[in-house]
């Protein structure tokens, strides 16, 4: 599934040739997410990301990199999702504005 979906990423060996550490890592992720649909969606999320697929720079997420717990969490949280230039430019300002509005509402007793 990885090879067919993530065609722009570095190729991997057949599972029978994997090192024990890779097999153990994948087994751990499967225990956390025992649903093939999860991995299908994950691979599409990676392939669709300009950053992770190498379309935005020279970095390309490798198979092992994707499955490291910290990296997987960031992928799932959308840290590597594509954003248009305006979203990126104003993301910090929007967060600041929303926080200021929430603080003002708390001060004024509005829920």
Description:
This protein has 111 residues and is mainly α. It folds into two domains: 1-7 and 18-80, no CATH class; 84-111. It is built from six helices and no strands. The longest helix is centred in the C-terminal third of the chain and has 23 residues, at 85-107. The protein is elongated. The model has no long low-confidence stretch (mean pLDDT 86).
Primary descriptors:
about 60% helix, about 0% strand, about 110 residues, mainly alpha, elongated
Strand and helix layout:
Elements: H1 2-5, H2 20-32, H3 36-48, H4 63-67, H5 69-76, H6 85-107
Rounded mean pLDDT score: 86
> Helix-strand pattern, N to C?
HHHHHH
Please estimate the helix content.
55-70%
> DSSP helix count?
6
Strand fraction? under 5%
Number of strands: 0
Q: N- to C-terminal separation?
A: 47 Å
Radius of gyration: 19 Å
As residue ranges, the low-confidence spans are: none
Question: Mind describing the biggest β-sheet?
Answer: none
Q: Kindly give the count of domains.
A: 2
Structural class: mainly alpha
Shape: elongated
